[in-house]
What does this fold into?
Amino acid sequence: MTSASVCRDPAAFAGLAAEWDGLRRRSPGSTPFQSHAWLQSWWRSYGGRGRLRVVLVRDNGRLVAAAPMMLTHRPLPTLVALGGGITDFCDVLLDGGFPAAAPCLAMALHHASRGALIDLREVRRGAAAEQVYDAWPGPRRRLADSVCLELPGLPMEKLLERLPAASAKRTRQKLRKIDKLGVKEHDVLPSEAAGAVRTLLKLHAMQWEGRGVTPEHLRPRFRAHLERTVERMAESGDATITEYRVDDETVASDITFTSREMVCGYLYGAHPKLRSQRVDITTMLLRHAAAHADAVGAGTLNLLRGAEPHKLRWQAEAVASGRLVMARREMTPALGVHLAQVKGRELAAGAVRHARDAGWLRHLRAGGPGKGGTDTAAEAGGARS
It folds into this structure.
């Protein structure tokens, strides 16, 4: 017998860890962003009282589908995925061995969304949420969301073969310079993860000081989230913190997430002196991530959100995530209002970007250094800055 329920109690959600991760292992295409460690820690840092809405579907007591959601007002009542702006891929979980998982979860979400819209952002191509969208019984709209750049999961030498000869030659020279400096890679033990997160965030703040750091990365709630979640994810193999050391000093650090199909760099920090020494930090981090992807057999090395020049030069494929908006039929007018608001925000954001970029170009033409100097784009690794 199949049944559905909505978990609104954070303590009950915390108690779902074993069941949740068992389902994630049976859910094709899931990423570490769908792990219980990531989502439950995110809720502790960012959740709002009374807003948790985790939709669960069971078959004879076995968890076969789950949608980690919360209720927001934007200003319309809307169910959105847990994870918010710091999660690159949002999704639901579907048991690959239970064929009715997607339609059952679609109906459970339809029932749970009375009086609210559903807005799933950053849905990766081929994600389980697309099956729920296809089974949705009411009005729906698919929009484009962020673009991620992807490389094949190959070691560095194979990636270099994809580049033009001159570019590959320059990159090999950069790698030799990194090796000449004596940079050593050290994968941090899970028991050391919390301290390593603090070191990473300190380096991250130093690296971007005065150059437009993402404000959220400096906030205590973000630090607390990473300290909690990375230790658990390192224990399960979902995450690795790597420190790059010179003479026992940590000069850079990054967090890499690993799933069956994909390896991705989430966040990094690097000491400013690497910039002053003109070390290509992107290349240093990418070499390690590429070796890791090859070692674990992941077919994709994902550079996550953003199509910055330092990513494009690696001949990466641009893959757009989707935004899946669904509503009950009685919510059709509200859906129209919501879509208009989304379009308005996109136009406003585009105008801001245009003004910012125009100002930067004027600064460059006047002889200024631009966003922190000419090497800034070349130093942002696979993670978002």
Q: What stands out?
A: Confidence is low (pLDDT under 50) at residues 367-385.
